[in-house]
Amino acid sequence: MRGFLFSAAAAAALLIPGANAAYGQERTERLDSTVIASTRADASTPVTFSMVGKEELRRSNPMNSLPMTLALQPSVVVSHEGGTGIGYSKMTVRGSKGSQINVTLNGITLNDAESQEVFWVNIPALTSILSSVQIQRGLGTTANGTGAFGASINMNTALVTAEPTVRLDLSAGSFDTGIFTASASTGLLPSGLYFNLAWSANTTEGYIRNGWGRSASVFATLGWLHGNNSLKLTYLLGDQHTGITWTGTPLAYLDSDRQYNPEGLRPDGTYYRNHSDNYLQQHIQLNYTHQFTPAWTWSTTLNYTDGYGYNERIKFRKKLSAYGFPKDFSEGGVSASSKGDIIFRKTMANGYWVLGSEAKYRGNALKAVFGVQGSRYGGDHYGELIWAEVLGADYAYGPLNVRSPENNWYFNNGTKSELNAFARGEWAILPVLYAYADLQYRLVDLRMSGIDDEDDLPMGFGKTWHFFNPRLGLTFASGPHKAYASVALGHREPGRADIKEIIESNNLEGGDRELKPERMLDIEAGYELRLDKVSASLNLYMMEYRDMLLETGAISNSGYAIKDNVGRSYRRGVELCAAWTPWDNLSLEGNLSLSTDKILDYTQYYNEYDNMDDWNFLGQQALHFDKVTMLMSPSVVGMARISWTPLARLAKGSLKTTTLSLDGKYVGKRYWDNTESADRCIPACWVSNLSLSHRFNLPAGHLTLSAFINNLFNTLYYADAWVYRAYFRNGGWYQEEGVFPQAPLNWMLKISYDF
Q1: Which residue, among 171, 246, 161, has the nearest Cα to 197 in the 3D structure?
Q2: Contact indicator for 408, 382 with CB cutoff of 8 Å
Q3: Which residues of 185-213 are buried (b: 16+ CB within 10 A; e: fewer)?
Q4: Rounded CA gap, 129 and 218, in Å?
Q5: Among 400, 442, 504, 688, which residue is least crowded by beta carbons within 10 Å?
Q6: Which residues contact 751 (CB under 8 A, 6 or more apart)?
Q7: Cα dist. 189→101, 167, 225, 227, 627 in Å?
Q8: How much is the mean pLDDT over the chain?
Q9: Cβ neighbours of residue 522 under 8 Å, at least 6 residues apart?
Q10: What is the dihedral of CA 288, 7, 237, 122, to 10 degrees?
Q11: What is d(CA 459, CA 415) in angstroms, rounded to the nearest whole number?
Q12: pLDDT in tens, 224-271
C-alpha cells in the first residue's frame, strides 16, 4: 500500500506541467464547489454558521472523532461513550440532539433514514479526507434528507489539488491507542484525470472497561475534468468494531470505579470480549457537473449507501422462549422454559439510494439554486441466536446472516421514500442589502412490516407526510459590517422507534393513537464585525416548537413506554463570538452561548408498583410542571483558545513553525430528565486541552511532530446520563441510571510526513 502511494504520486509529478497547475486548480475548485452549493451558506446568507477549514481539521487531535473536533464551536456540546474519542460519540447543538441535526457529505445526507441519527463511529478518520465543514445553527439553509431541526453539518471532501501530494500520519497514545493514516493524490493530469486515495486504521482499548475499538476507513476518488465538464466517482468505506458501552456506569460506582462497565460482565468478574457492536458501511457517489456559461452550472449526483452490522451480546439466565423457541419445544430434556446463558446477535442490513440534481445561477444581482432529489431506503432488522448454554455447542442454531422470518426469532423491515424539491435565491436589492428566500417541499413515505423483537407483535404501518418549509431573510453588508435577520419554518416526521412504541400499544389495546410531526419556527438576528485583527459576532435566536416528541414516562396499559407530542416548548438564546490577533504570532478566540430551554405545561409520568419483590403494576403517578428545563440543555456553554507561535518573529527556518495551543470548554449543568431536579443533573465543568507542534522543512517534503494533552487539569467529570425511575407503594422511589465518565488526563503523539 505504502509503495503504491509513493509511486503514484511520483509518476504524477513527472506528468504534470507546472504551467497547467494554476489553471487546472482554478477550474477544478469552481466545478467541485458546485456539488455542495445547495447546502452551504455564504457571506450574504442570513444564516448563523461557522466554518472549520482543512488546516484546522488536520491539526486536530487524531484520537478525536468529528464531533470531538467540532467541540469548540459555538453552542456545541460533545460526549463519548467510551470516554476518549474512538468509538461512539455524540454531539448537541443548542441542546438539539443528534437526530435533530442534518448531516450531509457532498450534499448527500448521512442521517439514517429510520433513526434520523448519524453514527459517527461508522465513518472514522473523517478529518483526514475533508476540505471543510460548515456548521449551521438553527434551521439553516434547505438540506436534503431528514429535515434539520436544530442544526446542520455540511461536509465536503477534499478538493482536487493541482500537484501530486502524499501524506503519512502515525499516532500513538494513552489507552493503547494507535492510529495510522495514509493519503495520496496524483493531482490533475494533462488528460484531465485525477485520483485520490486515503486509508486509516485505528485501535484502542478505551478508557471505560471493555470499551475497546477497532476501526478502518478507505476513501478514494477517481475524477475527470475536461473544459466545463467534471465527472467524479467517490468511494468511502467505514468498518468499525467496538466493545459495547451503551449503558454507562451506575452512579454508585463513579467515585470508586469510574471505568466500570456492566455490559458483557460475567458473574466471575471477567468480560465476554465479543460483547460488541460491529458495522460496515460503504458510500458510493457519482457526480457529473457541467458549466454552461459563467453564470449557469448544473450538477447531478447518484449515491448508494450500503450498511450491514450487528451487536453481539451475552445474557445470563434467560429462557429459550425469549429467543424464538415455541412453547412446545423439547429436545434432550431441554424445553422452551429452560434457563441458561445466551449469546445472540441483533442484526440490521440496509441500502439507501439517492438521486439529486440541481442548477445554480450566479449573476451580478441574483444568486439562485434550484434542486430536486429522490431517495429510497430499505432496512431489515432480525435476531440470530448463536449459542445457548442449555443447548450446547453442537446444536444446529441455523445459518447466520440469513434475512428471513423462517430463520430468525424476529424479522421486520422498513422502507422510506422521499421526494425533495427546493428553490433558493439571494437578490441584491441595493449594493449593501440582500433579500433571501428559500422554499422547500418534502414528501415522505414510510412503510413498516414484520415482527418486533420484544413480544412477537406485528409492526404493520404506512404513512405519507407532506411538508412545506419556507425561509425568508434580509442581510445588510457594508465593508467590515454585516447584519442579518431571518425567519424559517421547519417540520420533521417521527422516527422509527417513536412509531414502533405506538404500534405496540395499539396492537395490544386496540387503540388508534398517532404521533404528529414536529414543527419549529426559527427566528434569528445577528451582527458581525470583521477587521484586520479583530472579528466579533452577536446572534439572537428564538426556536419555537409545537408538538415536540418527548418521552414523558407515560406507558400503555400493557407497559410500553410511549413518546408523546408536547404542545409548546422553546429554545431561546444569545451567542457571542470574538477573535483577536494582536500580533502575527498570537491569536485569541472565544465564544459564549447563553440560553433558556423550556417545556410548557409538561407532565412527567412514573410507574407505580406494589413492592420490589413482586413488581406488580398498580398504575402511574403524574408530576405536572407549568414550565421546566429540557433535559441535556445547558444554559451556559463557552470556549476560550489561545494559539502562540513564540519564535515566529525571532527564529529562522523551521523554528518559526513551533506552535503552542491551549483551549478550554465550559459546559453548564444539564438535567438527566425533564423534571429539573438538582439530584439528577450533570455538574458544570471546565475542561482544557494543550497541543504543541513543530514542522521541519526537509529536502523532500515536511516532517511535523505534534503532542496533545487532553483534559490537562485532570478534571473528573461525566458528559452524558440517562435515568429510569419508578415508585414502590411500600418503599418509596426506585432509580436506575447510567452516567458516562470521560477520560482523565491523557496524551497522544503524532508524526506526519508530507510532500
Answers
A1: 161
A2: yes
A3: bbbbbeebbbbbbbbbbbbbbbbbbbbbb
A4: 10
A5: 400
A6: 169, 170, 171, 703, 704, 705, 706
A7: 38, 19, 9, 13, 63
A8: 88
A9: 138, 139, 486, 487, 488, 489, 490, 541, 542, 543, 544
A10: -120
A11: 13
A12: 999 999 999 999 999 999 999 989 999 999 999 999 999 999 999 999
- Give the number of other CB atoms < 10 A from CB of residue 313: 18
Q: How many angstroms separate the CA atoms of 109 and 153, rounded?
A: 10
pLDDT over 60 at 458, yes or no: yes
Give the chain's domain count: 1
pLDDT surpasses 70 at 471:
yes
Q: Is residue 513 a contact partner of residue 505, using CB atoms and an 8 Å limit? A: yes
pLDDT value for 63: 87
**381 with 347: CB under 8 angstroms?**
yes
CB-based contact 251:318 (threshold 8 Å): no
Q: Could you tell me which residues come within 8 angstroms of residue 340 by beta carbon, excluding any fewer than 6 positions away?
A: 317, 318, 388, 389, 390
CA distances (Å), origin 240, targets 120, 235, 673: 10, 17, 31
- Is 593 within 8 Å of 636 (Cβ atoms)? yes
Banded model confidence at residue 28, pLDDT cuts 50, 70, 90: very low
Residue 439 pLDDT: 94
In this prediction, what percent of the chain has a pLDDT beyond 70?
92
Which residue carries 496524483 as its cell? 186
- 117-126 confidence digits (pLDDT tens): 888 888 887 8
Tell me the torsion sign for CA atoms 287, 291, 292, 297: positive
Q: What is the pLDDT of residues 425-446, one digit of tens each?
A: 999 999 999 999 999 999 999 9
Within 8 A by CB and 6+ apart from 104, the residues are: 36, 39, 110, 143, 144, 145, 152, 153, 154, 155
Closest listed residue to residue 28, CA positions, set 145, 121, 100, 131: 131
State the DSSP code for 251: G
Could you tell me if residue 107 is left (phi over 0), alpha (psi between -120 and 50 degrees) or otherwise beta? left
C-alpha dist (Å) from residue 21 to 159, 160, 302, 686: 14, 11, 29, 47
Q: What is the DSSP string of 301-352?
A: EEEEEEEEEEEEEEEEEEEGGGGT--TT-EETTEETT-EEEEEEEEEEEEEE
What is the radius of gyration, based on Cα positions, of the chain? 27
Report how far residue 163's alpha carbon sits from residue 175's, in angstroms, rounded to the nearest whole number: 38
Which CATH number does the domain housing residue 705 bear?
2.40.170.20
Cα within 13 Å of Cα(653), Cβ side: 4
pTM for this entry: 0.90
pLDDT exceeds 60 at position 8: no
Spatial separation of the C-alpha atoms in residues 466 and 444, rounded to whole Å: 7
Residue 719 amino acid letter:
A
Helix/strand number for the chain, H first, E second: 5, 36
Q: Are 496 and 454 in contact (CB under 8 A)?
A: no
With CA atoms as reference, report the closest residue to 381 among 402, 412, 409, 415. 412
Cβ atoms within 10 Å of 43's Cβ, excluding its own: 10
Which domain, by its residues, includes 732? Answer: 2-754
pLDDT in tens, 158-178: 778 788 999 999 999 999 999
